[in-house]
Amino acid sequence: MIGGGTSPNHPVAAPDQRATRAEIDLDALQRNVELLRGELAPGTELMAVVKANAYGHGARMVAETALAAGASWLGVATVGEGMQLRAGGIAAPVLVLSPISPAEAELALQARLDLTVATPELLAALTDASRCATGTVGVHIKVDTGMHRYGADPELAAALARQVAATPGLRLAGLMTHFASVDDPDERFTDQQAELFRRCLGALADEGIVPERRHLANSAATLRGTSHHADLVRIGIALYGLRPSPTIPLPAGVRPVMTVRSTVGRVHALGPGSIVGYGGAYRTRSAEQAVLVPIGYADGYRRGLSNRGWMMVAGQRAEVAGRVSMDQTVVRLPIESPVNIGDDVVVFGGAPGSRAPSADQLAELLGTISYEVVSGISPRVPRHYMRGGQALGDDPSASTPAESGAERDHDAPAALVTRESS
Ligand SMILES: *Cc1c(COP(=O)(O)O)cnc(C)c1O
């Protein structure tokens, strides 16, 4: 696969046939969106949060599937992520959830992105940039109601909202806040935050200023009843079939979207007392088989899983033996277990009832959350999009001018393989 047209922004599918891949079950995603919509208060819209390459699932395909299933907004973290969706032909409203620098204002406006604003400096930059923009700029004022990450104190937020309402090139598209600890069974802090938000809205309403949309809820707040649904909910992790916290169950039928798979690269019989991998961090007690799987921490299979993780190898549970290295991991099976080069490996995820670890289980081993496990699967791992149990035959959204130089792996039949750079 030697050819021109490659660019650093669009790494091409490499010519290798490495078996390691992330399968993205678009049917599950579609169903999850439908089921989550079924939980919403009447009239509440759903924003599919697709930041960080859709938590590692592939932003464009997730965005298209979620929109087709009834989401009406998309949420991203950066201007670049929003621009990438636009380059992929997505026209739906996109909100940049994180603060942007004033220097990015012009690019953001060109891409028709809505922006989250909590500082006078950013508002001034948007006001300037809006003078040469066509159409009006959607501004969502973020109120800090207690999380103290990003947002303006309620008084400043109200002042910013007034200013937006009075500026011809800007629209007060939203007033928003974010909850700090909605998974806490004690709901007092959350209620306090919601109350501060209501007061801010009330102060504006007294002056006749009404934002187009009010929004507060992430997945956790959405799943705790309808009281904070307002006009729009911003759902990330639950779309991907993962619970926001152990205390907040998902609606029945919502299931994980990502399965990371590979195949056995080598099988090696070891005698008792043999070491495995860097530092000899594992030593066999009896004869065992060392099974090589081509995935490592550079793929997002974290080194913290050394001697702790497990995978399903040819339908059998196999523990990680020794240290995870950058590109490969050794797992172990009893000497008599049937296993061959090329056998299937499920690294995590899998169909309902699969005995492979879930993203939640790996997260627990690592002392983190599933968000980090899935969003950490690196761009080196190709995403294979599945519908009806089949890999998609071609990418319906593949050829955009921005990506026409990217080559695909033509030798992977019937598979839609992408290596998006985000
Ligand atoms: C990421 C994000 C969300 C989505 O959170 P989940 O817990 O994944 O549902 C919602 N709102 C804001 C502001 C975010 O940054």
**Overall pLDDT level:** 91
- By DSSP (H or I, 4+ residues per run), the number of helices equals 11
**Mind telling me which CATH architecture of the largest domain this is?**
Alpha-Beta Barrel
Based on CA atoms alone, the radius of gyration comes out at 24 Å
* Number of E-state strands: 21
Give me the CATH superfamily of the largest domain. Alanine racemase
**CATH topological fold name of the largest domain:** TIM Barrel
Please indicate the count of domains.
2
Which CATH class of the largest domain applies here?
Answer: Alpha Beta
- Separation, N- and C-terminal Cα atoms: 23 Å
Helix content: 10-25%
Structural class: alpha/beta
Main sheet summary: 11 strands, mixed
The ligands bound in this entry are: pyridoxal-5'-phosphate
**Uncertain ranges:** 1-12, 394-415
How much strand? 15-25%
SSE diagram, text form:
Blueprint: E1 21-25, H1 26-37, E2 45-49, H2 51-55, H3 59-68, E3 73-76, H4 79-87, E4 94-96, H5 105-110, E5 114-117, H6 120-130, E6 137-142, H7 154-165, E7 170-176, H8 188-206, E8 213-215, H9 219-223, E9 232-235, E10 258-263, E11 266-270, E12 275-276, E13 282-283, E14 288-293, E15 310-313, E16 316-320, E17 329-334, E18 344-348, H10 359-366, H11 370-375, E19 383-387, E20 390-391, E21 417-418
Parallel strand pairs: 1-19, 2-3, 2-9, 3-4, 4-5, 5-6, 6-7, 7-8
Antiparallel strand pairs: 1-10, 10-18, 11-14, 12-13, 14-17, 15-16, 15-18, 16-17, 19-20, 19-21
The structure holds pyridoxal-5'-phosphate.
Key descriptive features of the protein:
single chain; 422 residues; alpha/beta; TIM Barrel; Lyase, Ornithine Decarboxylase, Chain A, domain 1; 2 domains; 11-stranded mixed β-sheet; 8-stranded parallel β-sheet; 11 helices; 24% helix; 22% strand; disordered N terminus; binds pyridoxal-5'-phosphate
